[in-house]
């Protein structure tokens, strides 16, 4: 069984869109958004996957979501059928933190690859959870987004040395750091040095859920990326669709 996020009560968040972030930016893809997260970022733009009524961990919007309206449990076969109803040859598995549901995802991806052998599977992760072995064997790409101090998560939860070492060695893994202020740059540079992350595999992305904030932060962040030899990614879907579910 898989626990998915919803677009509207009772409707699973499975949709086609352009990948908006990172190395596959601009590619037509099918998205599936899983519910639940092991972290709690203050600026999380998908707090409806974890900040359910009674969860008082700090979030800038101070919103609480009704679990019954925002979570949906389906079996792997049902999810596979909904995904295969779309014709794109790329799948992005996101959340929440999708790797919390590793065994069920392994089943899902096995069914999908059997039905559509060329399907490219990329997984968005906060980088704290080791992928289930069978899922790892089938995954084509990881977009790993370790959370910095400004996320509000303690480093002991968000930056796990053993995990970061493993991702840095995996050629399928691309790092994507969310940046809110120039003060975040030195923290990224320290992580890059400590774990030997190649600049070619290191993206910085402005934090923001509106075009105006992204534009303003992009100006100085692009300069920093150039100075550090890092890659820059915008958030294409925010410019196209705003901060909406199912896009
Ligand atoms: N279009 C689009 N691209 C995305 N890339 C990563 C996303 C995410 O929420 O993880 C995302 C998303 O929500 N929409
Ligand atoms: S790790 Fe991702 S899904 Fe989890 S709280 Fe942070 S931004 Fe949200
Ligand atoms: Mg998103």
From TrEMBL:
Single GO MF descriptor: magnesium ion binding
Binding site for S-adenosyl-L-methionine: 43-45, 96, 145-147
Gene: queE
Biological process per Gene Ontology, one example term: tRNA queuosine(34) biosynthetic process
Organism annotation: Novosphingobium hassiacum
Family, similarity comment: Belongs to the radical SAM superfamily. 7-carboxy-7-deazaguanine synthase family.
Complex formation: Homodimer.
HAMAP family attached to this UniProt entry: QueE (MF_00917)
UniProt cross-references to InterPro entries, sorted A to Z: 7-CO-7-deazaguanine_synth-like (IPR024924), Aldolase_TIM (IPR013785), rSAM (IPR007197), rSAM_sf (IPR058240)
Cofactor: record remark: Binds 1 S-adenosyl-L-methionine per subunit.
Protein name: 7-carboxy-7-deazaguanine synthase
Enzyme Commission designation: 4.3.99.3
Residues involved in substrate binding: 18-20, 33, 94
Keywords for this protein: 4Fe-4S, Iron, Iron-sulfur, Lyase, Magnesium, Metal-binding, Queuosine biosynthesis, S-adenosyl-L-methionine
Needed cofactors: S-adenosyl-L-methionine; Mg(2+); [4Fe-4S] cluster
